[in-house]
Amino acid sequence: MHELLTTSEMARADSLTIQAGTPGVALMERAGRAVADAAATLAPFAGKILIICGPGNNGGDGFVAARVLAGRGYRISLILMGERYRLQGDARLVAEMWDGAIGRAHDFDTSDADLIIDALFGAGLSRDIDGEAAELVALMNNSGKPMLAVDIPSGISGNTGQICGVAVNAQATVTFFRLKPAHILYPGRKLCGRVILADIGISDQVLSEIQPKLRLNSPDLWPDVIREPDEEGHKFSRGHLVVLSGGAESTGAARLAAHAAARIGAGLVTVASPSEALLVNAAALSDIMVRSADGVEGLRRLLEDKRRNTIILGPGNGVGDILRERVRLALASDRSLVLDADALTSFEGHAKELKSLILDAHARKVVATPHDGEFSRLFKHEPDILNIKDRLGRALAAAKYLGIVVVLKGPDCVIASPDGRATINQNGTPWLATAGSGDVLAGIIGGLLAQGAEAYEAASAAVWLHAEAGRLVGPGLLAHDLPLALRSVVSRLISERAANK
Q1: Is 173 among the domain residues?
Q2: What is the 3-class SS of 183-197, one letter each residue?
């Protein structure tokens, strides 16, 4: 159940199901009953429920829910935006089955209501809500009553999670068959409240024809990335990662990345340190090797050893021409790369140059890990990317433009591939919003790349593992807690997979 369907893909799922012999009105009946079932858990028995219906199929679901709930003894007050005779298709059929009163927007009254059901607009909304509809949304939000949304809170774009003018703030949402991006992407994710996924009889077989490219991030999507080491393996068979360090006053970020890479299983990890910081790094590291590497030539010498197969550039390195040249050298090598933090900011306003370097590169696999600020700086002269409002669209556009995997960090972290695939992460925690957390993520990605994982799978796995480690640590989290917490997360994952074989 990890597929995320866009609104057009969900419409296709409905259409294929209808073509296979299930009438559309039957799907609407099942959807409405699922709404009624959810409402019954939120409102006291025989309580009063106010249902706000819109002019489309979402409103049709509301009419079904009204009929079912009335039959169960609930007192129903139904408001329709528009005229019943203007309803079309299946929505018109189910509306004709409702024999109760139908109010208009000016009849809105929640004084004795126990629950409001928002069946105004569905996920396919493509324009801002205004006029009478906006007034209804405001009345619902200001009522102080609990709200249950049908499919998605009215005013949220199903594909992006963005607010279209105004939006309902629901306590719970009932949706059908598969989640949509907006159920996972903020601010939609927050406005949905608890999401209930209902089975309305659409077969999973439709997915083979739809072939959705969006996924909810989960270990099931990268089953071969985390595994027990080969009994006949050795440290070099698990990769040798190089992490570039900054100067004496900014060495911590590289060490955090290095520790994370080692914890996730990289066989060897070396911190490439400027001479001025060599003693600082050496004194702070015992399981990690330290080598002197000044400037571009220092990195070039380290890369003469072909066993050093992966490089992390950026954490605490310092912004400027030297780092840009080091990125250029790394891209020209046959290594896997993680471009993070300063490595991206060093190309501020020069995304086209970075794209050209990547296009000419010999690097095996490349993952970029910007947060929103670094993303905006990198693409400041690329309005076609920068002006995209939603995070999923931004990440996909950036990945396609650069030709590499892009991890757009945030509470709803998006991992995007140049081929249009994307995973959206759901298991994050606000405790991860602390200095050094991103350096640890870069280290996990690098450690998995060093062991041979593909870039998209390595990035998806790393984001999930990083978030899970953060959840495990919880309150008081500091970045250096995360590499140690990875032990428990990985151990649990391996044990669960062994138990399920």
Answers
A1: yes
A2: HCCCCHHHHHCEEEE
Residue span of the structural domain in which 70 resides: 3-212
Helix (H) or strand (E) holding 242: strand 240-244
Question: What pLDDT, on a 0 to 100 scale, did the predictor assign at position 232?
Answer: 67
Question: Residue 223's closest CA among 476, 480, 453, 30?
Answer: 453
Could you tell me if residue 185 is left (phi over 0), alpha (psi between -120 and 50 degrees) or otherwise beta? beta
Helix (H) or strand (E) segment spanning residue 339: strand 336-340
How far apart CA 53 and CA 79 sit, in angstroms, is 6
Write down the H helix ranges in 187-269: 188-192, 206-210, 252-263
Q: Let me know the angle formed at the C-alpha of 120 by 117 and 121, rounded to the nearest 5 degrees.
A: 125
Both 181 and 295 in one domain: the answer is no
Residue 220 lies in a domain: no
Q: Which two tokens stand for residue 42?
A: 């939120």
* Residue in this structure with the two tokens 């070039």, named with its chain if needed: 300
Please say whether the beta carbons of 470 and 480 come within 8 A: no
pLDDT tens profile 397-428: 999 999 999 999 999 999 999 999 999 999 99
In what helix (H) or strand (E) does residue 385 lie, and over which residues does it extend? helix 383-386
Question: In the chain, how many domains are there?
Answer: 2
Beta bridge partners of 292: 273
Strand 147-150 relative to strand 172-176, pairing: parallel
pLDDT of residue 490: 96
